[in-house]
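Q: I'm building a small set of examples for a reading group on sequence design. Run inverse folding on the following structure and report the sequence directly after it, with nothing in between.
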């Protein structure tokens, strides 16, 4: 599978699930502006992923036209627990680099499971992506986006309610369609 296919499937997931289900009410604007950067890391390790995170932080520092970066890991970190370890390490790395309050990581994984939820809980699909990925976000952009958004704290609950209302089969089919 080529990087182009991986990116295309990821874009399909963003459009149909993240934007289509309105899980992130701010994603459409970034996609329309083409300010989302996609980086595919084939056959990576924790160390190589952290090197990519460092490169992306530097690039984000230098490029205001890039709103956010998705580091996609199509062949690695398929085990959700190992992936969560990577997320924790990447968050610590960002902090050690002095980026607290500047950037944060959002996590998406094909087997994402919220704490205390069942594996078949449709709400897990609010974070179940087509591939494991680290989403680097500018905290300043988040702050600006939610300033005029009604009840930003209610977004997770609305997402969970939407996924539960649609049901497991719908959420599974919606994500599966991204591979077509």
């Amino acid at each position: 599978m080529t990087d182009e296919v991986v990116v295309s499937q990821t874009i399909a997931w963003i459009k149909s699930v993240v934007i289509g289900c309105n899980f992130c009410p701010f994603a459409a604007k970034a996609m329309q502006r083409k300010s989302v950067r996609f980086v595919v890391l084939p056959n990576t390790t924790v160390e190589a992923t952290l090197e990519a995170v460092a490169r992306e932080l530097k690039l984000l520092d230098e490029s205001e036209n890039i709103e956010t970066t998705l580091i996609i890991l199509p062949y690695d970190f398929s085990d959700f627990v190992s992936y969560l370890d990577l997320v924790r390490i990447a968050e610590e790395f960002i902090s050690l680099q002095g980026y607290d309050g500047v950037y944060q990581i959002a996590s998406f994984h094909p087997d994402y499971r919220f704490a205390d939820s069942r594996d078949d809980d449709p709400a897990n699909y609010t974070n179940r992506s087509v591939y494991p990925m680290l989403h680097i976000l500018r905290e300043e952009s988040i702050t600006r986006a939610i300033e005029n958004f009604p009840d930003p704290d209610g977004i997770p609950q609305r997402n969970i309610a939407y996924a539960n209302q649609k049901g497991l089969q719908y959420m599974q089919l919606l994500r599966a369609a991204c591979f077509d």
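The radius of gyration is 16 Å.
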